[in-house]
């Protein structure tokens, strides 16, 4: 595995997976509809948005994941 792959995995562990482990709640944001589309919208057709809430850590995190 390349060093950039290792860095990416470390970033995922630190920025996403550790927050998921500490979360009190994880919410999937559904389709917002066409009125919420940015001018550059639809560049990525498939993406997912999650809100991670950690009350003890007083953190709210938005994770956006693209399928590309």
Explain this structure to me?
The protein is an alpha+beta fold. Helix content is 29%, strand content 31%. The chain is built from 1 helix and 3 strands; from the N terminus they run αβββ. It has one helix at 3-22; strands spanning 25-29, 47-54, 59-66. The protein has a 3-stranded antiparallel β-sheet, with helices on one face. A hairpin with a 4-residue loop joins β2 (47-54) and β3. It is flat, with a radius of gyration of 15 Å.
Mind summarizing the main beta sheet? 3 strands, antiparallel
Helix/strand order, N-terminal first = HEEE
Radius of gyration: 15 Å
**Helical stretch tally:** 1
Structural class comes to: alpha+beta
Q: Main sheet: which strands, in order across? A: 1-2-3
Question: What portion of residues belong to β-strands?
Answer: 25-35%
How would you state the average pLDDT, rounded? 85
What is the CA-CA span between the terminal residues? 20 Å
Q: What's the β-strand tally?
A: 3
* Helical amount: 25-40%
Shape descriptor = flat
The residue ranges in which pLDDT falls below 50 over 5 or more consecutive positions are: none
Key features of this structure:
68 residues; flat; single chain; alpha+beta; 31% strand; 1 helix; three-stranded antiparallel β-sheet
Produce a short descriptive summary.
This protein is of the alpha+beta class and 68 residues long. It has one helix at 3-22, and strands at 25-29, 47-54, 59-66.
Give me the secondary-structure topology.
Elements: H1 3-22, E1 25-29, E2 47-54, E3 59-66
Antiparallel strand pairs: 1-2, 2-3
